[in-house]
Amino acid sequence: MKIIDVSLPITNSLPVWPGDPAINNQLVAQINLGAECNVTQLNLGAHVGTHMDAPCHFLDGREGIESLHLENLIGPCYVVELPDDVMTINGEILDKANIPSGANRLVFKTRNSKFWDEKPATFHTDFTAFEPDAARLLVDRGIRLIGIDYLSIAPYKRATETHRILLGGGVSIVEGLDLRQVSGGYYSILCLPLKLVGSDGSPARVVLIDEV
Fold this sequence. Notes:
13% of the residues lie in helices and 25% in strands. By secondary structure, the chain is an alpha/beta fold.
């Protein structure tokens, strides 16, 4: 069994969505300055790095992140590896992706994964994401969880419709995955956001398990 951590390291230099709070985690107590122990204060938004969206992120009055059903977030998963020339994921692309009919948790590896190789990483607006027609197909197929290797499942500045279709259809969304060490195929996924009551999202630690 091989466990692959597909979570991005959260550092103060990690890119965030434009307009979201910057990451500014800092020690507020330090042993080397006379404190009994080291204590870090976390200053970050709910949608930083590898994270999950709650229904209330785009659907006002709906459930917070603590409401996500754990059975959607743990279990068999299929990683769909798309060619680097796929700039947007629409219904036609999904039809050609040869996704197994029984797979109901899907993670998409795209050209986005290469963005995480940058030193330092910068925010990209041209990332590959899902168009609304593809989101509808996923809902119609009964997909329980969808993941992607950048900070949004939806195109830049066109986020609303895709998110509302997926979240309104009961699909759990995990964004900001680091899939550089992952190939397409079957895995098990373990995806756990923090239990932040009423929050529209949460950072998550996500691993894929390859039963080799």
